[in-house]
Write a structure and sequence with these properties.
Four copies of one chain form a homotetramer. Chain A is α/β, with parallel strands linked by helices. The first copy, chain A, has two domains: 16-254, Aspartate Aminotransferase, domain 2; 255-342, Aspartate Aminotransferase, domain 1 (Alpha-Beta Complex), CATH 3.90.1150.10. Chain A has 13 helices and ten strands. Chain A has helices spanning 16-25, 37-50, 62-73, 87-90, 95-98, 116-124, 152-164, 176-183, 222-231, 240-250, 254-277, 299-305, 328-342; strands at 55-59, 78-83, 103-107, 134-141, 168-173, 198-202, 212-216, 289-293, 309-312, 317-321. A seven-stranded mixed beta sheet of chain A has the order 1-7-6-5-4-2-3, with helices on both faces. In chain A, strands 8-10-9 form a three-stranded antiparallel beta sheet, with helices on one face. The longest helix of chain A is centred in the C-terminal third of the chain and has 24 residues, at 254-277. Chain A is globular and about 55 Å long. Chain A starts with 15 loop residues before the first helix and ends with a helix. The mean pLDDT of chain A is 97. Chains C and D meet through helix 1, helix 3 and helix 9 of C and helix 1, helix 3 and helix 9 of D.
Chain lengths: 343, 343, 343, 343
């Protein structure tokens, strides 16, 4: 596939500014393992963005960020509470268990979003005995795996429930930028301001070549995260190459520009689907993904010819994810293809 | 530090050809998780280099490569036998234990090299009972952590001992290129030709920005490695960016050019140390590292002013590692600095 | 509590025959770690009971048996499919994850019993990609945590679904004896005869002081189980003391006598609850447990005064489990207490 | 083997008082998981013996005790420092790694005893960086695997070194009773009085049928140990049966009586070996084990005919361990056998 597709935002390439920052960082020698100037600059910038108590730990990918951040929050006998759709619960093989030794308690999440009532009910049902893995962290994905977004009020309510039961809060922010861009908020407004402890801050899906960061908002977790990053294989020796990309995205809020473009493309796609095919997305289009209900029988032909992902072949649900570089032509081409195949 | 130093080859930047390949790969969209053309090309090229049965699995770093490759070779009750100087035994925090659950049995290794007699003695002492972690893999570092190189005959002898006792063989090849460049052999001559099962093939220290590969020479291990790469957090979504770098290094044997330059710089440094300071390296200089014995009292001043690593502060041993871009001026500058501080 | 209660069958003591066997085994010296005559006799007897290909590995407890047996069936990237009520999923803290590194995929199970359709649907939804923990074992609890029993036909259907999708089958048989006693079948009829691979065969809840066994029906798993038993801390040095108890239970089918008594007591309790209080058990009483729906407001007083377990305080569900030594008086005393408190 | 042998003290049976306590505890029902009266009594008695801040957690065996106790003291990135002869380092398969994720750093230990200088040198060589597993616990075996005993002064010196470097201290006390009996001290004198944090207190080798205890002297570790005991599969449901044995051994210091008898038998054996065969034990006989140097060529015949363990077939070292019930006749019979075979 050489054209821009919609299977995932990790099929996109690199934003020119990110690539330029990477190339610039490649010049000459620099101290390894994060003692370089670029990483220092990233750490400073992240404190501006997420708050003055922030520590930033670049890692290689989102699964790594989740495992490092969550493991720092969990005792060996603890469980993480999350959505049944969470990447953590469905798309990270056994990494949470094998590396982190954690139990994953997944809850129903309509349109990808956990509800305070659902979380509270699960937690109320735990009696604290040694027999059960102890819920110790609530992990929220923002924006969600189904392309929806928690409002700040919704986040605050969920954090409140977690705190009431003594749980810490982790945000899987592989697409946090898309949520902030949609809501028009800062990144802090969705994390530090509402009491989140640790964030997996994604760059890979938003214009980077690779790399994410464990953003630590509780200073007591800085050393555990630093040590776990190494012990889980996620410490880059030439760290400047991860840091440079993250710094580029945080500079002049490039993250917002790229995420907003992807969001807008998704909006446009949803609108054109309604107009041309009468298809209403299965979930509210609040980030950069559109979930299209189609006849199950049509799925094989569609995924064979068009760059979309078969999300659920049995019910006939496709996923189309827009990237920072998705164009109107890309959208029109997809809509035309769908019209041809579904018409 | 903006000049080229000697603390480690991971302080170096990117070779221009590797960087160019990375930039080229950044254009446009491509399937994720290794279904892209660049990764396919890498796989093909690796079969030419390592042999037709080779499977290649790009990962993020050397610790990841070691953990993935070794875990694929080990049952949960098994141990890996390696050198007391092995990166695996000393520099990977608890990753081998936490992620891989493996016991690491480390042996004395004069000048970094395991001896067939030493390995045989350890293995002869194991009775196969369930009480002991069962030695199942021999892991050799080539070139070694002390800058020495196993000859093909030495490798064959060690592999022979391993096979006699039913062990598989892994090579930690973070600097395999340096060994092959020194010996004037192919990469296959040091791996597939002598019966190695799995190689951690390093790129990061030899001109790449990040990334190594688990090179699987026993086809039965391909699926385990593929699945463990994900379960250990080492699967890159935009894999083309790892693959492009590895492919650039394997193209026209760039790996040999870069490694040979680093080796030559180390030779030159050793010669100049002898000439100017009368310092004889602690170990034979067979790859790209020089270990310098100096008075322990001098270590603090030297490492404060010069870009070398204090390998052992108590005995007064420094490490100077050369990179693909180390110049004669860099060497002369270091020698002059040492002359000044040690004189 | 010095009287016989109903909170759990692990509140009961030891059957006199089991205790006598233990005392007899305590005489004199014997080889450790299973090389003793009692363990040999147990192995022989187990082959008569479960089939000629059986290997038997005594362990300390049910969680240990489950973790050892399942881990032997699972690659590090695999998942076990089980009921949402399974002990494995709810009552073993993080042992499956921490020790076994396994993902646990739990399914709705009406009255504690998995359905072939439910299992098939979950398995059909897995595409075999490396991203998802791969379902590799189906774990059935027989009798179930809700006091119900799978018929041999139901077992065969579930095993068939598992086999169709390439899964192995494990039975958590902490109360397997109760199921066989209820159905009037042999233990083999519920395990080896229907194609089960590994059984956690419980003794603790059925008259033993401690100890269960990993009963291995697939000979290829014997060595993995032997080695995992040690690597998971479940190998007893003075193994004769576990083996003697298991052998006592398998001798003259004492297991059936004890289990049948517990089952009969549960039947009697259910009948008396209907007669005296008009309470219909929440689930069919097919083993030795009765689940009593009561007004939630009554739960605190009941559990404060009577030896029953609050299974779900919110919905008002109590659990009363009968043991091999539960008497009619015990039942009448409980019924009278309930009548007083609920009346 | 029906006679009393010397292969290990875990070949012995049960002391009559321990067995009687077990039988007494088997009567009737009791709350499970440690809420019973026997366990309460054990906890009280242990506070008298080890000090008022003691918490006691019965477990199934010594490997379990070590893994639970050590894991409670270790972060996931930490290492335990111990002797190269430690059970932990040599005889627990991969349990420390698989269950605890810990790195084990083993040191030379002449005659089984770590030296303060050796420990200090290893710790001085660690720079605290994230690259290395961080030494966090010193684990001492008392009495040692080679039948020797640390004096209280030696213990204090080792604990001092550990404290100076910020390490906690664990004692593998599978044979702690033998050490205290030899030294004529209390158990507290060897543990709480010198600043030990956690003890694996052994019963199995000293007259019990099975069972040891994690004795927690630092109250902050009580909850971690309680939860890890479950998460590592070491929680007994019918806990009274472990507790009763431990309580019997702590009552009227039965542990001292049994250990002293085993020690005295070892003394007698050593003396008779000197007298009759001119064999001087390889290590000082300070507990209940005698290590006999013999010609390597004689080992096969000796171990085929006599109940001793071949400790090292290559150097010709045999181990003879005495138990609480070893008689003078047993000793004479062994000496006569050796005289015949070695004569």
């Amino acid at each position: 596939m050489t054209t821009r597709g919609f299977t995932s935002d990790n099929a996109s390439g690199a934003h020119p500014d990110v690539l330029a920052a990477l190339v610039a960082a490649a010049e000459g020698h620099a101290p390894s393992y994060g003692a370089d100037d670029v990483t220092t600059a990233l750490e400073e910038r992240a404190r501006e963005v997420f708050g003055p108590a922030t520590s930033t730990f670049p890692v290689f990918n989102g699964t790594g960020a989740n495992v490092v951040g969550l493991t720092a929050l969990l005792h060996r006998w603890d469980a993480v509470v999350t959505s049944e759709h969470a990447h953590l619960a469905t798309d990270e093989s056994t990494a949470p268990q094998l590396v982190g030794g954690m139990a994953v308690l997944s809850l129903p999440a309509p349109a990808g979003k956990l509800t305070p009532a659902g979380v509270a009910e699960l937690l109320a049902g735990h009696d604290g005995s040694v027999h059960h893995a102890r819920p110790a962290v609530l992990s929220l994905t923002q924006s969600t795996e189904l392309g929806t977004v928690y409002t700040t009020a919704e986040l605050a309510a969920l954090v409140g429930v977690a705190r009431d039961h003594g749980l810490a809060v982790h945000v899987d922010g592989a697409r946090l930028a898309n949520a902030a861009a949609r809501l028009g908020t800062s990144l802090a407004a969705l994390t530090s301001d509402v009491g989140v402890d640790v964030v997996s801050f994604g760059a890979t899906k938003n214009g980077a070549l690779f790399g994410d960061a464990v953003v630590v908002l509780d200073p007591a977790l800085a050393e555990p995260v630093a040590r776990l990053r190494k012990a889980t294989t996620q410490l880059a020796s030439k760290m400047r190459f991860v840091s440079a990309q993250l710094l580029a995205l945080l500079t002049d809020d490039l993250w917002r520009t790229t995420a907003a473009r992807a969001n807008a493309a998704a909006d446009h796609l949803a609108q054109r689907l309604r107009e041309e095919l009468g298809i209403e997305p299965a979930y509210a289009v609040e980030a950069n993904a559109v979930f299209l209900p189609v006849p199950p029988a049509a799925v094989p032909a569609v995924v064979a010819e068009l760059p979309v992902l078969p999300w659920d072949r049995r019910t006939g649900l496709l996923r189309a994810v827009c990237s920072f570089d998705t164009t109107e032509d890309d959208v029109e081409s997809l809509v035309a293809g769908l019209a041809r195949l579904l018409g």
